[in-house]
Design goal:
521 residues, 20 helices, 2 domains, Arp2/3 complex 21 kDa subunit ARPC3, Glycosyltransferase, two-stranded antiparallel ribbon, mainly alpha
Length: 521
């Protein structure tokens, strides 16, 4: 067998494993769309900068895709970008090498996130992109050596690498410039998509299920350790009871919950279900299928908890169920979360992640005087926009209902209930009510169950009564939520949607129960 045939065989195996890995993850339609978009962007970046040899943003885009979305999506973004861009440059025996090289860059990005917890700053990411550029160049030098060298000696490889060194350095330098310019912005945008759109809008087949990390993080939150609750009207109590029945019916035999009814269980969806059940007053430890509770499932699969959002959500869910997040599967999740705080007090530089960190730490029993909570609170207070609302990426972006409600609740949990920021945030929420009584994701959009539930949680945390929230003669947000519920207890995302994801029902339950913010002293 020749060197060329052997190399193509190995590449075929590597590419096959990478694409199989991605397919076995069963990516949702939203993830597929995002991966395709990123691959197209990476390919376009290579074409656009074709006049500048080796200078292109492709490597940065692929690495950051893996950094945020994970190894399998990162691999596919890189491999497809190479294949697609060569439609312009021309296909050849180098194509599978480029596919494998850029696919490897995507996996490298995922490894960075795994090792550093997604907390790398601008310069660290730029350095990683430079290293990826040099590694890519070395791999393609290997391609030349394998495909075209005569004796395949080390001397030949060094000659090839020496001639390619200026191009590889240019590639690495370009990566640094591109990453410094748009790297953190792309990371924030991808995280926003991952935390909200990918999960929140995930389509479901038969019955209910899906959910966004952020949505139920707050939903749960509001219940996690609540000591007091405002008794809802009988109609809303009945709606909550039907919702509990629906959630319990979506439980799998292993005790967990999947994205959709009948889908395999996962830590993510199971923790959201725990939070929703607790919010409505049902002990998640007593919700069992085959003798297994969702809390049992979470403890068994604690190894799947990796990202900052995972840690926050799991702390909230375990605390809601009365289990200590400090000793689960040999891990202290509270300590892990504290280590993820940045020097400026924020978590990942994002309003929602910082809000959830405060809520999780309070749920775990930390005092508002705790150094981490105080630092995070100080950073969060500085992110308020002039209209009183908050944008997920910080001050200056367009305020949103979900992020404002999360920040408001976090500030109340941190002991800032009487602050001007909390008052203005609550006022911002009440001003966004639509004529149907519900709340939009961002001002001017149609109402949805998630944002409505968050707004209810926010105004309750601020000490206001959501029943009296009837802007312009509209009905209350509680009535809007109830109008989305079926006789079986499932809650639709909006009037225009027939989907009834589990997370929507869980979030709506918290709103219908008007659960005040839980504070543990």
């Amino acid at each position: 067998m020749t060197w060329q045939l052997a190399s193509f065989g190995l590449l075929a195996v590597a590419l096959g494993v990478g694409f199989t890995w991605y397919e076995r993850a069963r990516p949702s339609a939203k993830v597929l769309a995002l991966v395709a978009t990123l691959a197209a962007l990476a390919a376009l970046g290579r074409v656009a900068f074709a006049p500048l040899p080796s200078v292109k943003p492709t490597t940065d885009i692929v690495l950051l895709a893996g950094y945020v979305l994970g190894g399998a999506p990162g691999f596919v973004v890189g491999a497809v970008a190479a294949l697609a861009s060569n439609v312009f440059f021309g296909q050849g025996p180098f194509t599978p090498w480029q596919m494998a090289a850029w696919g490897g860059v995507g996996v490298f990005g995922a490894l960075l996130a795994r090792i550093f917890g997604g907390g790398l700053g601008r310069w660290a990411l730029a350095a990683a992109c430079a290293l990826a550029g040099l590694a890519y160049g070395a791999f393609m030098d290997l391609h030349l050596w394998v495909m075209y060298a005569g004796a395949h000696s080390m001397t030949e490889y060094l000659v090839i690498a020496g001639r390619g060194l200026p191009f590889n350095i240019a590639h690495a330098a370009g990566n640094v410039v591109f990453c410094l310019a748009f790297g953190p912005l792309l990371v924030r945008a991808l995280r926003r998509y991952r935390d909200r759109l990918d999960i929140t809008w995930k389509p479901l087949p038969p019955a209910p299920a899906t959910g966004p990390a952020t949505a139920i993080v707050v939903a749960a939150l509001l219940v996690a350790l609540s000591a007091v609750a405002i008794a809802p009207p009988q109609a809303h109590a009945s709606a909550a009871s039907r919702g509990i029945t629906y959630l319990a019916g979506a439980q799998n035999a292993d005790g967990g919950f999947g994205g959709d009814r009948g889908r395999p269980s996962s830590q993510v969806y199971t923790s959201w279900a725990v939070l929703g059940l607790k919010a409505a007053g049902r002990d998640p430890n007593r919700v069992r299928r085959g003798g297994r509770s969702p809390v049992d499932y979470m403890v068994r699969r604690i190894g799947e908890v990796r990202t900052t959002g995972d840690v926050q959500r799991t702390i909230l869910a375990l605390s809601a169920a009365g289990r200590s997040p400090r000793a689960v599967g040999g891990r202290d999740l509270v300590r892990e979360l504290v280590r993820k705080r940045r020097a400026n007090g924020s978590f990942e530089g994002l309003v929602n992640q910082t809000s959830f960190a405060i809520l999780a730490l309070r749920a775990a029993g930390r005092s508002p005087r705790d150094a981490t909570i105080r630092a995070a609170t100080t950073w969060l207070l500085a992110q308020r926009n002039d209209d009183g609302g908050f944008h997920f990426a910080g001050r200056g972006g367009r305020s949103g209902i979900d992020d404002t409600a999360a920040a408001l609740q976090a500030l109340v949990a941190a002991g800032k209930r009487s602050s001007v920021t909390v008052s203005r945030a609550a006022s911002f929420l009440t001003r966004q009510q639509n004529p149907d009584g519900g709340m939009p994701l961002t001002p001017g959009q149609g109402s949805n169950a998630q944002s409505t539930a968050w707004a209810i949680q926010g105004v309750v945390a601020a000490g206001r009564n959501p029943t009296g929230l009837r802007r312009g003669g509209a009905r209350s947000p509680l009535a809007y939520l109830a109008s989305l519920q079926s006789s079986g207890g499932a809650v639709r995302y909006s009037r225009s949607s027939a989907q009834t994801p589990v997370w929507v029902t869980a979030q709506a339950l918290t709103g219908l129960a008007r659960t005040p913010f839980p504070l543990r002293r």
